[in-house]
Design brief:
This protein has about 600 residues and is α/β, with parallel strands linked by helices. Helix content is about 30%, strand content about 15%.
Length: about 600
């Protein structure tokens, strides 16, 4: 397996791998990583779909890419997905998956056209004082000290940042900046999370810095992630004969481990209370999704809080059993044994009439019923004790959603702190109480809040114990390689597998990159996996990001003015001077 960029290999159709018709493939889990892996086996590996089986504990596929209507509770989305044009592996996949909305178009075509016709933009990124504009005004408010800390992180080696927390490399000036407000609420980082992961994000998305204050570089699906991304892929896989085996909990995987050869030999599972499994030979490939962001999630309802489930966690327990068999299989407890640091709560609010949407329109500065972009991303209540953020995507967000309803997604960073209106921790609140707190921060008159929360909405809270588990401080070896050294028939995929590329987790891109690497490695596909977009090596993008982070302030060249003028006179004879002026890091003629 190797990486490539550019058009030379982008459109290549690889030749059929030798002996692929005699192989089988088994996937543990049916999240995006498994679905993408199965698609790559069929499209690029030319494996017959009938020889691919996907084992899923739940009764429906999709993993964390969910979106469901529970008639007794309401619509439920546990999270949303922010995407951009440089998710190279994701778009490589979806260029081949037919759209369910547009005849003759791919999912990529559908997504591209939607975001061309209705580009994303937030008109109010944050609020204070109960719905007033916080006037972040596109500024990052980074002090010189904070800027130096960002540069130091950017230039540090990966090894320097291993096992360090963000608040160990950044001081209070940085943590009080608008940059950190944008960053932590957009990506769900906490101060105690991994400085290494933040470094990877900074490199991966350096070209997105300009769009952080207003989300102008982000793109979103037409409907919820399940209907827009999962269902088209499921249909394509079923049309190709892939077998889905639901209600099947994989409990262990056996391996034959030798110094220069490692082979998976059996998958153990439990289905309908019966222990079963399958023996694996060298031609039987197994792709294991390890860990889980949404494991042990619990849904409450409008009158019932969601519970924090700290009990047995099958996905994590499976990884622990596997990891005990070889040091190369990772260290799951680095990520999955810190629930107080990895939990947070979200809620899906469904408005039932026109009373609440008028407050949404006031903050979003758009009509939420227009069918177009509404908030353009999350709106953060900057002075919220929970650090509450909420978003309204294009409506309807569900195909089955009544036209007079709006679906809103809300989440809080600090679920153990008492609210500002509801004097209770978010994790102890019913859906109705979370709605009250949200309405309070939207500026609804206090006297109207109880009735409006009780009769104007239906809200489903969701507690997720492991939702930011992958952000825990870590070091090399904590996550297993996608294809461990000497493996002949197995791979690890998903957010807790270690790609060989400098990519970062908590993205749909990473969920597609890891299975692409796995399939291309185990089948020796004669086509390169698209490398991560090289913005971090592009001097133009580095200069543009530097200008944004400085809020447009020019570089301070020390010394007398005549020295500065002499220096610039010389630089202006080179491309360097032209670039510095183009990106407004120096002024003058």
């Amino acid at each position: 397996m190797y990486y490539s960029s550019g058009n030379y290999e982008a459109f290549v159709r690889p030749r059929k791998p030798q002996g692929v018709e005699n192989k089988t493939a088994w996937f543990v889990g049916s999240g995006l990583a498994a679905l993408a892996g199965a698609a790559f086996l069929i499209r690029d590996g030319q494996m017959p779909g009938q020889r691919i089986t996907i084992l899923e504990q739940q009764l429906l596929p999709g993993g964390a890419l969910d979106g469901i209507n529970e008639p007794d509770k309401g619509f439920v989305i546990r999270g949303g997905r922010e995407m951009e044009e440089h998710f190279e592996c994701l778009w490589d996949l979806y260029r081949s998956i037919p759209s369910l909305e547009i005849d003759g178009a791919s999912v990529l075509d559908e997504f591209y056209r939607l975001d061309k016709d209705d580009p994303n933009l937030s008109l109010q990124r944050a609020t204070v004082n109960r719905g007033e504009d916080a006037h972040t005004d596109g500024l990052f408010t980074l002090s010189e000290r904070a800027l130096k800390e960002i540069i130091k992180l950017f230039l540090a080696t990966r090894q320097e940042m291993e096992n360090k927390r963000i608040n160990e490399v950044f001081g209070e000036e940085f943590l009080n900046s608008h940059f950190w407000l944008y960053w932590r609420t957009m990506f769900a980082f906490e101060e105690w999370h991994s400085a290494l992961e933040m470094k990877l994000y900074l490199h991966r998305f350096i070209h997105q810095i300009a769009g952080m204050p207003d989300f102008s570089t982000l793109k979103f699906t037409r409907f919820n992630q399940y209907e827009s991304l999962v269902l088209p892929l499921i249909k394509w896989l079923l049309d190709h004969g892939v077998v889905f085996q639901y209600g099947t909990e994989v409990t262990d995987v056996d391996f034959d481990i030798a110094p220069s050869r490692k082979q998976a030999t059996r998958i153990h599972w439990r289905s309908k209370g019966v222990e079963d499994g399958v023996d694996l030979g060298p031609d039987d490939l197994v792709f294991m999704t390890i860990g889980s962001l949404t494991e042990n999630s619990d849904n409450g309802d409008h009158h019932t809080p969601a519970k924090l489930d700290t009990g047995p966690a099958p996905a994590w327990d499976l990884w622990r059993r596997i990891a005990a068999k070889d040091p190369a299989f990772g260290r799951p407890d680095v990520f999955g044994a810190h629930i107080p640091e990895t939990k947070w709560e979200s809620a899906t609010v469904t408005t039932l009439d026109g009373r609440i949407p008028k407050y949404i329109a006031k903050i979003a500065k758009r009509d939420p019923f227009s069918g177009k972009v509404v908030t353009g991303g999350i709106v953060t209540a900057k002075d919220s004790a929970w650090l509450l953020s909420w978003t309204v995507n294009r409506q309807p967000h569900f195909k089955a959603q009544p036209k007079d309803q709006i679906v809103v997604w809300v989440y809080g960073h600090f679920v153990e702190k008492p609210g500002d209106y509801v004097k209770k921790p978010m994790q102890d609140c019913t859906g109705e109480e979370i709605t009250q707190e949200w309405l309070y921060h939207m500026g609804v008159p206090v006297e109207d809040i109880p009735k409006l929360a009780a009769t104007g909405a239906k809200t489903v809270p969701v507690m997720m114990p492991y939702i930011t588990a992958f952000f825990m401080p870590r070091q090399g070896g904590d996550r297993p390689d996608v294809v461990p050294e000497s493996s002949i028939n197995f791979a690890f995929i998903g957010q807790f597998a270690e790609s060989r590329q400098r990519d970062c987790i908590f993205t749909t891109e990473y969920s597609v990159r890891t299975p692409m690497e796995a399939v291309y490695t185990l089948l020796d596909i004669e086509r390169g996996v698209p490398e991560v977009f090289n913005s971090t090596y592009d001097i133009r993008m580095l200069l543009a990001a530097s200008s944004c982070l400085r809020d447009g302030k020019e570089l301070d060249i020390p010394g007398p003015a005549f020295v500065r003028n002499l220096l610039m006179k010389e630089l202006d004879k080179t491309q360097i001077g032209a670039l510095l002026r183009e990106f407004k890091l120096v002024g003058g003629d």
